[in-house]
Amino acid sequence: MDNVIGRVLISEEQLQARIRELGEIITKDYQDKELVMVCILRGSVLFFSDLARRIDVPMIMDFMSLSSYEGGTSSTGRVRIIQDLNENVEGRDVLIVEDIVDSGLTLHNILNVLNSRNPNSIKVCSLLDKPHERKKDLNIDYVGFTIENEFVLGYGLDYKQKYRNVPFVGVINPDYI
Ligand code: IMP
Ligand code: MG
Q1: From ligand 2's centre to the CA of 40, what distance in Å?
Q2: pTM
Q3: What's the rounded Cα separation, in Å, for the pair 56 and 89?
């Protein structure tokens, strides 16, 4: 995968071990709930599909696509809905699955949109939490890993739309940015 990856930050084994733990916690929390698990495309697609397999309650899967980055490595602050959910979430228990929360602008917008649809509950599960540049005060209910303020890629996360298929989370080689 050329030399875009500076170093491995979270290995495949570490990812799967943590996802197993998250799945067990979420399974306990969503007994007797109407779980709608929302995949925020495209970054959380690998995490979402691995996590869903570790959650042992009936669920509906749905997908939403937003854009906050315009292809670089820092947030522009602009968030656009590109593809909305198919399901009506009113009265249901929504679990938003994100790849990473950085400034928090994307998640803040998603929460505003979905809260206005009167779900019974909304929680957030993010694989990665990068709190250093947080611009919105947010509660993330389930966090995989808290990381430093570095640009990461792989396991769904892209750099200029590539490298999502890297099976681990890596830190970008600084020569690339
Ligand atoms: P936020 O709106 O600043 O919280 O950014 C959220 C979105 O930015 C994530 O869903 C990612 O798509 C992207 N993002 C933030 N940090 C990184 C990173 O280190 N690598 C790749 N994408 C990132
Ligand atoms: Mg994303």
Answers
A1: 7
A2: 0.94
A3: 20
Pocket test for ligand 1, best of 5, 7, 45, 69 (most atoms within 8 A of CB): 69
Beta bridge partners of 61: 37
Decide if 173 is inside a domain.
no
Provide the number of structural domains found in the chain: 1
Closest-CA residue, ligand 1 atom 10, reads: 100
* Within-domain flag for 4: no
CATH number at residue 57: 3.40.50.2020
Q: Which of 10, 44, 99 to mutate to test the pocket of ligand 1 (most atoms within 8 A of CB)?
A: 99
> Per-residue confidence at 1, pLDDT binned at 50, 70, 90?
low
102 given a catalytic annotation: yes
Q: Is 32 exposed, middle or buried (0-12, 13-18, 19+ CB in 10 A)?
A: exposed
Domain that holds residue 40: 11-151
